[in-house]
Amino acid sequence: GRFDRQIVVDVPDLNGREAILKIHTRKVRLGKDVDLSIIAKSTPGLAGADLENLVNESALLAARSNKKTISMIDFENAKDKVMMGNERKSMILTPQDKKVIAYHEAGHALVAYHTKGADPVHKITIIPRGQALGITAQIPEVERFNYPKSYMLGRIDILMGGRCAEKLIFNDTSTGAGNDIEVATNIARKMVCDWGMSDKIGPLKFGKKDEEVFLGRDYSQQKNYSEEKSIIIDHEISAFVKKAELNADKILSDYRHQLDDIAKVLLDKETISGDEMRSIIEGVAEETPKEE
Ligand code: NHX
Ligand code: ZN
Fold first, then answer.
1. Are the beta carbons of 189 and 237 closer than 8 angstroms?
2. pLDDT tens-place string over residues 62-78
């Protein structure tokens, strides 16, 4: 057989998701507050089957609280479950664990808030779910299919924000940031090797898709560049990530009081919306960033 075609699960776009939601909600009773276009907007990456599952989970949650109709809050809770996994209620965390998680998530959220062009923070939670002890969710305002370099740099800054907050507050780092580091490194590698976004290296593609061996969703890459170039590539990738770390450090120390305020409310409420976060920040007297 031929293995040289990339197999991509076709995920629906915004309009597709709304259409799918309309189909699957035909047989359930929706509350007056339910707006399927808002649900579609906040479920990027979900396939048709996931959306069907989302409707079923929402119906289950509504039934569990003895409601005759599904309301928006049921969809919001079901979305967390479908997108991030089950809540892990049995997980016992010490107050110190919780504090680290709260600052880590507050760090992501605050860097996102202060990063131009970043997707707005939708929700921050320190309730363990699936593999994660805490989650900061951002949702794009408009659906995009192509992203500027500035946006990708901002994403790496935000990914570093969690670990940088741990460093700033506890003078230590933790294993939990491993996933953030992995995602950040992968973005930086693509910026350098696929998207021509390193000025030092220019618009070249490094690595050629291995067309013989099928390794799941991503193909393995064949090295088609020199040892010398390999050293420069590695250097550029780490430069992107280290610069992001500096950017995040600066935002967090410039706005340390905002970080403390978000973490404090998070520890108390466990989950806060993006709007709540913005009112916490904007309710705090303006701080003037320190001079360089
Ligand atoms: C563990 N989990 O022992 C525990 C349960 C730093 C406060 N493995 O970065 O939860 O340490 O901003 C997808 C998504 C592994 C896959 C998250 C695989 C997380 C999540 C490790 C928060 N939020 N880390 C984060 C976290 C962990 C992990 C993942 C994943 C923490 C951090 C996980
Ligand atoms: Zn994180």
1. yes
2. 999 999 999 999 999 99
